[in-house]
Amino acid sequence: MARLADYFVVVGYDLDKRVEGEGEGQGRILQRFPEKDWEDSPFPQGVELFCQPSGWQLVPERQPTSFFVAVLTDINSERHYCACFTFWEGQDNPQLQKARAGDMDEVDEEPTIIQPAQIFAPKSLVLVSRLDYTDVFRNCLALVYTVHVDGLTVPLETIIGNLLTCVIPIAGGSQIIESPVCSLDKVPQVPACDWLLACLQPGQEERGDSWRTITLGAGDRQVIQTPINDSLPVSGSSVAQLFRQLGIINVLYLFCAALTEHKILFLSSSYQRLTDACRGLLAIMFPLKYSFTYVPILPGKLLEVLSTPTPFIIGVNSFFRSETQELLDVIIADLDGGTVTIPECVHISLLPEPLLQQTQTALSMVLDPELEVADHAFPPQSSLPSTPKIQDKEIRAIFLWLFAQLFQGYRWCLHIIRIHPEPVIRFHKAAFLGQRALTEDDFLMKVLDGMAFAGFVSERGPPYRATDLFDDLVANEVERIRQEEASPHKVMTHVKELAEQLFKNENPYPAVTMHKVQRPSENGQKATQSKNPFPGLDEVTVQLFIDHATAKLKTAPPVVKAEVKSMVPSGPPLGDTVDRNSNVMANSARRLEVVRNCITYIFENKMLEAKKLMPAVLRALKGRAARVCLTQELNQHVLQNRAVLDDQQFDYIVRMMNCTLQDCSHMDEHGIAAALLPLVTAFCRKLGAGITQFAYSCVQEHTVWTNMQFWEAMFYSDVQNHIRALYLESDDGEYQNQTGQQESSGSEREISALELASEQSRLWPTLGKDMQTERVQKEESTVFSQAIHYANRMSYLLLPLDTSKNRLLRNSALGDMESVSNSYVTNSIAGSMAESYDTESGFEDAESSDVANSVVRFINRFVDKVCNESGVTNEHLKALHTMIPDIVQMHIETLDAVHRESKRLPPIQKPKLLRPTLLAGEELVMDGMRVYLIPDGREEATGTMGGPPLLPAEGAIFLTTYRLIFKGTPTDPLVGEQVVTRSFPIASLTKEKRISVTLPMEQFVQEGLQLRSCTFQLMKIVFDDEVAADLAEVFRKHMHKLRYPQHVQGTFAFTVGQSGKLVVEHKAKDKNQSLKTLSKNLVKSAKRTIGRQYVTKKKYSPPTWENRSSFQSELDEDEISVSEEVDQNSLTLSSTIRSSDRQTMSNVVERACCRDYQRMGLGTLSNSLTRSKNEPFRISTVNRMYTVCRSYPGLLIVPQSIPDSTIQRICRCYRQNRFPVVCWRNSRTKAVLLRSAGLHAKGVVGFFKSPNAPTSVPSQADSTSLEQEKYLQAIISSMPSYSESSGRNTLSGFTSTHMSASDSSDKLRQPKIGALMKQVMGAKEDVPGTFSRGGKWGSIRGGGRLSAYNPDVGTRLAGKESPQPNGGPSEALFLRQHRAYLYIIGDKAQLKGGKQDSFQQWEVVPIEVCDVRQVKNSFKKLMKACVPSSPSLDSSTNFLCCLEESEWMTLLHRVLQVSVLVVELLDTGSSVMVSLEDGWDVTTQVVSLVQLLSDPYYRTFDGFRLLVEKEWLSFGHRFSHRGAQTLGSQSSGFTPIFLQFLDCVHQIHLQFPMEFEFSQYYLKFLAYHYVSNRFRTFLLDSDYERIELGVLYEEKGERRSPQVCKSVWDYIDRLNKKTPVFFNYMFAPEDYEVLRPYTFASNLKVWDYYTEETLSEGPSYDWELRGRQERAASGEAPDKPDSGAPKSQRRAVWPCYDSLSKTVPDAITKLFQDLQALEGELGQGSEKWKDTWDKIKAAQRNESKLESKPLFSSSLLMSSNLSHQRRSQGVYLQESSVGSSINLALDCEVSATSTPVAGRPSTSTLYSQFQSTESENRSFEGILFKKGALLKPWKPRWFVLDKTKHQLRYYESRQDKECKGVIELADVESVILGAPAMGAPKNIDEKAFFDLKTTKRVYNFCAQDSLNAQLWMDSVQSCLSDA
């Protein structure tokens, strides 16, 4: 029974504490009854705050009375419900009274607001109760108020006395409610006192019928219905209301947030709604109870509570909304607005699918039943939702159903660890999640870890207690729920049944709802306004009532409600749900069979059989079923806790155990580790006399052993089994009798521990005292003995076999839990790194004791936790603590003996190490160390994508002076004898990282290295056990030394052939001064050393640069200003050398630059007297001593008119002194390409901002700026187009013509270039016409990343007229074209604020360049994408996503785009100066690509070599620095600028396969060797540095030594003579072909160099190795006797293993190979392949000339389809918007009569590529005579009929590239025989004439003969009919 109300309180406004001027006041308790606190429920503090949560205020008008219930929680977390009834009482305004009291004069001073005479103060009547009956409280308080207002005769004391003494049962609604102490029926009309006495006469109460009403003695009557079962919450209609206010999804969010312990805040302007919403949220959480802060109404004064760190559910009035805005981690639900706001930093885990979906569906069926039938044609008559009260129960039923699904089977995961005196129960979370296959589910994990669930377990865990609806649901309805969950209607039926039960529980007698409560009358309320305030009550009278009632209760017999306790049913056990991840594997019976067979073989000692099955078993063990099967099988081989094995059996069993544990998570949700725990202490092998090694010493490296929760769960489950056994034994007899009936009826069933515990709990009260204590002691000692057992077990698995290696602690949570210091790492080996933990040390005891300490701490923590929870006595606990260190110490001692013995075991047979083949001069630095090569993210080699599992492989790693090589064989014995090789040059190592890996073959987590190389190779190696840690450390050190030598002379290219030992030491002594510290005399010393070399060796050696330049200076009579840095001494020295050899001149000329300059006619080295002055350029020797610019070559091309002295001044304006020099000239337009670095900032400002007004006096420009301008002007003057256009080379002359044309000049720009320019500069709008381009043109769309900077240049270039649809401008534009003579491509960032001047003849094109950092980062990401270190699990890390993220393709696009723009500008006759960054990265890329695209010479072997030597080597690209080749540049990191260039060339090569003499392999070869350091070519940063080291001109004599070429070019030449591997068979160049590739990212392909690999032989770029490997292979395999069986010609070619080019060579290579083989067989001397090839080609050409039919291919070999892939790309790629016909008309092919501009190769070169070989594009071609237009003669023309483009084109001759006209077949109406017209060719058959009639005119044709004419007509006709 419980009191209906504990306290009645009257709270009023405290006038005394009122603060002047503020409305805010305070409340105070005026009276409270009873005045003494009840013992069982003390009076809650702070009631007055909660009566007016928004603050106590006086108001000028009376407010309506209000009522709400606030909830207060006391210190014992008991909730008190405070029902507040507030009304307003009038008072005289205190401010007016003050004013009257004071002097009148003072009032005048401040004019105040007119104060009302009367103001109203709030007064609250409060009931405090522990029960939540809102309606009853409202009625009771309303009655008190009514009595007061209406002035009823009943004394208020009576009502309050009755109210405080009313007692009702807590639950069990059927019970009769006690009649009240006083009821109105008995009140005689006597004075109050007598009446009171009359009421107090005992024995006069009447019993009512089956229920009783309560009455407070004022003519009122109420029925209180208590719930039948008080464990179910009572919600009224609050849940339904909550869903109505917020909606389904929002409430579900709040529900999940409350369960996962987030902070929730409700806002509303109604207090009662806040309370209801909070009550509703708690109701749907049942059966979980909310245990954090719960304040449905929070007063404004306590708002700081909201910043508490703990979770809460709080309600606040919307009035305070603004103060809740800055809460960052609180979910705010606005009940009035219906919104839920979740902050960004809060992540709410939602219910797992499909539960979430099912719940939502069910909720919408309850809340909005019409939704389902909304679309029905005949909707049912009524589908209205139920009444709110019923709806409320239906919603709660859905949540009950949801929890039943979430927690189904939870009782099977309870561990009962004590039964007496109180049951102690623990929940096995991991097992529950594992069996439900929900280990990944965030929501359930959080719920199970939460406080609410802990409360749920302790409340519902005990097996013997009263049960409720939820217990019933989980036990008996699970099967029904599972079957029905798919059908929403069945679910609804179930929900309605549950709702009915919930409703019945809350309203046991729905019929009895008689409420007779008086309301205050209207006039009564009005009257109170003038009436007195609420009176003070007589405390004595009320106290009398209370005392009387308590006395009566004491005498009354106690009402005992027998609580019906019973055994809680567990429900059906959890079925094994399919393992989601490995469902396929789990079900395969075949796999389980394999596991069983293998184990049988092992125990029958059939080791060979077992070995064969092993790889399959290890794969099968990935599945859960196979792991369970393994534990069961192994159990059968254990006899009496032991199974002694021999070495090999032991090894196999351990491997299987490790493999099984490897895939278990640290939680062990499937109980695999738990099942293995007894086995690892059972399997063992004898090592020697009395020494046994158990399996546990080999399976320690798994995280599960360091997980405290795993050990707890294991411990509890064992304790449960022992306690169960304890009671089963003792009560055997009793149980037999009870279970006898069950057994006879059905099969025997084991009694579960919970059933047993329930039975014991039932019997407990009946046992005697002694029996009880005996049982408690027995249980306690059981737990204690288990704790000792577990302390042993844990020490077994936590102490490593070799206690000096503290492996486990280092890489597991064990060390993390307490910061275990790593102080035990001591190193006796000087110099070995501190990280190598495994070194032996002199302080063994200290170390092992440290391992011991951490293990002891771990076990102690475990013991403390489990013993406290399971009630072990303190004495026992102390005993345990003293025992544990001894256990650990003892175990360490036994382990030491085992460790010693195990080391003596003969090692298991390992495969023999294979030696790698080395290059000449390559030497081993470290001999092979046994390692495993394990798989990385490339899955081809692992066998997962089909094919054999080549990795992991077992072998050795070799470190040589040049490479890092792994060579070994796959560990999978089924793959057989394949050899796996992976290697990369040591110089290409970019990242080395330590890793720890568990191998399936091994039991330990192994230390390893992950080595990444910029040749797109990755080695993940794991050191074998036999490799000592210090050896691995030495390996790392050597690797670092070789990777970053102190000086470039330490690289392999220099040290080749010297002994490896030398490599490591000599560099430091050799040269310790870095190049940065070079002083003036360094040049001297360099010359001396070179001189000495030259003098001492008698071999011929070309003299050095300086010699040459000094020689030059004598020849050259121009005055040379020698800068002061060079002293005379060095000059004289070199001149002496020079005189000894007169051939210096020829060597200068041999130099790449000079050869190329002369080829282009850019200047000669002739004496200045003979040099013709009209040559625009000259070769300057100003830099011959590298004094002007260190990073430029010695000879430079500058304008003729510029003296050297000017150059020395100009160069200072440019970064690194790299001033503009000419590097290429267009042979047709004579436009030149210049390169330089960007200007220094001041240069830019001074130069581009100075207005170049055409006045004679230069204003504001300083001299350098003027000289710079003069320099640019000189370049412009050198262009023929310039001198032609202006006639005079003067500035003013130019401007006048410029100005005269300026009005039209805007229109005169060429759209194509303009569009290009815009895209390069990033203008936003695309110019029409950039897409429909033919020829070798690629469409370029805007880069997207570039921001628009200077669009005017683009628009001026683009032309304002709308271009024609095909992108060609009208001819008029072409003929009068004006453009800038010089475009300067500059860096946008540098050129900010530079103004363009209308008078200047140059224009600046600002572009954004990708800086070095961008390239570096992009390359890192590219490597990770192409060679990932681990397989990608989610789609966001797959290859294509990573590739896109790397932005490598975008960078290529940018470089190519700028290059194409420059090509186009040069081709239209403007010169271009590329002036970006320091002039050695992007500039070099762009300049080289421009030359490659513009000049076919550079697309040959010689040309490409020359291009690289000139632009990259001579012009100082910093190869050593960018490649991080030495210690000094290590920090700068690897930046593959050159690789990027090669990739661009590869992209162009792909698009124009017939234009390059070299193959793709050639590019890959360069890409590999430019980082390999095998050759000296790509070492050092400039010619200056190369001369310094004497590398620029190698002594010719040295070449004879067999020491390998020092130049990559020589090597390529040599190799090219032997094999056609570098040659491109499709090479069929066209003269002066300018290539214009498509540059957009979608047109670019990923270079296969990045992704391919050949595991059979390693990289194929060191050719000597290939030959040697083949010889070695053939030598090793002697000829086997022929068995007579036919040999198959077929063989499997494995991707990523075999070299495709070798195993499946292309047709031509195959023919060459066959030819060679035949020559060998016939004993002829083999001919060089190139000669053979040239012969065949020549013969082919002759044949084709003899062929009369023009359709025959001109070259058989060239007709491969691939070769035309690009030449026809224009046709396939681009469709313009003109109808369906593909309109590829070119710039000038607008109409058939248009004539192209002379002197410019029209882009109709498109068709010149369609040579006759291209059958698919030229359907028919030949010579026809065509009659010209009116009065023009007949002329023979070469006609081409093109089906693809549907047109007939004609050319002057077959070779001609210029198309003379086009007849569109779409316009042709008919083809008919014609008659010979006037002037027709003579002697021709009449039938050879035919006419072609089009819509515009008639064409007359004449063929060679009638047959030919017929052919033509048929062909045209067929074209027409096809269309």
Give a description of the structure.
The structure is a single chain. The chain is 41% helix and 13% strand. By secondary structure, the protein is α+β, with helices and mostly antiparallel strands. It has a 7-stranded antiparallel β-sheet with strand order 27-26-25-24-30-29-28, with helices on one face. A 7-stranded antiparallel β-sheet has the order 41-40-39-38-44-43-42, with helices on one face. The chain has a 5-stranded antiparallel β-sheet with strand order 4-2-8-7-6, with helices on both faces. A hairpin with a 6-residue loop joins β28 and β29. The chain is globular and about 140 Å long.
Element layout with pairings:
Blueprint: E1 2-3, E2 7-13, E3 24-25, E4 27-33, H1 47-51, E5 56-57, E6 66-73, E7 79-92, H2 94-101, H3 104-109, E8 118-129, H4 134-150, H5 156-165, E9 167-168, H6 192-200, E10 213-214, E11 222-223, H7 238-246, H8 248-259, E12 263-268, H9 271-284, E13 293-295, E14 312-317, E15 330-334, E16 339-341, H10 355-367, H11 370-373, H12 388-406, E17 414-418, E18 424-427, H13 429-435, H14 442-449, H15 451-460, E19 464-465, H16 469-476, H17 478-484, H18 488-506, H19 522-530, H20 539-555, E20 566-567, H21 583-587, H22 589-603, H23 607-620, H24 624-636, E21 643-645, H25 647-662, H26 672-680, E22 683-688, E23 691-694, H27 708-730, H28 732-745, H29 753-763, H30 769-798, H31 807-810, H32 813-817, H33 844-869, H34 874-904, E24 924-933, E25 953-960, E26 963-970, E27 980-985, E28 989-998, E29 1005-1013, E30 1017-1023, H35 1029-1043, H36 1052-1055, H37 1060-1070, H38 1080-1096, H39 1105-1115, H40 1128-1139, H41 1144-1150, H42 1152-1160, E31 1177-1180, E32 1196-1199, H43 1204-1210, E33 1221-1225, E34 1232-1236, H44 1241-1248, H45 1263-1277, H46 1280-1286, ...
Parallel strand pairs: 12-14, 12-15, 13-14, 21-22, 34-37, 35-36, 35-37
Antiparallel strand pairs: 1-9, 2-4, 2-8, 3-5, 6-7, 7-8, 10-11, 15-16, 17-18, 19-20, 22-23, 24-25, 24-30, 25-26, 26-27, 28-29, 29-30, 31-32, 33-34, 38-39, 38-44, 39-40, 40-41, 42-43, 43-44
